[in-house]
Amino acid sequence: MALTLPAHPDPLAERIHRSGLLHELAHGLGGPFHYLLPERFDANLAAFRAALADAGVDGRIHYAKKANKASVFVDRCAAADTGVDVASLGELRDALGHGVRGEHLVVTGPAKSAPLLRVAVRQGALIAVDAPDELEHLLGLDGGRPARVLLRRHPPSQPGSRFGLDDGQLHRALERCAAAGDAVRMEGFSFHLSGYAVRPRADLAGELVELCLHARSLGLPADRISIGGGFPVDYVAADAWDAFLTAQRPGHYHGEKSFAAGDFYPYHSPVAGADALRAILAARPGGTGPSLAERLRQAGVTLLLEPGRALLDRAGSSVFPVQGVKDRAGYGIVTVDGTSLSLSEQWFASEYLPEPVLLRAAPSPADPADLADPADLADRPYRACVGGASCLDSDLLTWRKIAFPARPRVGDLLVYPNTAGYQMDSNESPFHELPLPPKVVVDHSGDRPRWRLDR
Q: What is the pTM of this model?
């Protein structure tokens, strides 16, 4: 029996699917593509801002640019006076080039290059210092202005993390900043925390507030903390997710591939996006005393956020034309134009589980595949995995045997829903000299969707 795991219904996406636009784009672009819905980004950003305002917390949001390379989302940040989180010189230049002001950039990542640090200082960006030698490098720069820094705290709850300064390094870094005078402006602290749980973030954020108070006693400004990203996205319904985790076994996958429940992103989350921020702000660090929101207000500390996936929730999908179908015992293998490099969960030895939507093309009598067996045209359920167009056995977009409503045909489209957050381009490569799937920006200002290529 096939496992089903459909994404939450999305009326806007369904409108696009009914419009015929995606088939037009597949014909015009000649291959796979991603479509983007920037109004969804705007709505998610507004929801995060509302959560901060409702809690009475002074905060600033920095979009984690690594989550999607599309320019349109950085354009939206510039228009909305929103910050951007960058981790490379290329990302920094791109953000500046799209109108984001330097002081609205936060530079994260480990072991930043010397050119990145030099430009970041000159542009007035805020730099999350991850190691003692990085701080020393900044203190030695002549950037014409003080280096704005956050000291990144190594998370005590995740001793295996490679990010941040441990207790001794943090103590010495504070002393160096206090002695550096105008060479540096130490504005506060940050952390990088894996996972999506509310409590660890609230607990560590509470510790950073106390560190700010300590740093002020040394004469440092220390008026802000960054809790990074890690705001989950809710892709599928709770009952479908629970049933999937309980029932899934190797027989549900091509080649009897085995996945443990822990191999998958948590595609259902009861508290997600801006609601996760609300939960963090309402939590009591350490389980006692005032809420995090109250502690931030009392200490006069600004909260910085770096969401990526959560700002891109339902802001785009990935479209692959069907290139061929072959039958195996009990199921089929659909081959699409494109590769699994455009669905980046395979980077984590996992797979993207919200299942693709089959959009049928009009039957073409001239297509030999349609004439091979009239029974193939019957609209009856058909189980199949989905493979890419490369010559690698492991190039599968979906190892799971999806229960399609009908046998896919050449020219049909498979639309993987809600892929804008990390899936589209984290791992894309022009393997086999295949062009990278273009990104198409779709808007709905008229009676039917309009589109343009992302710049």
A: 0.94
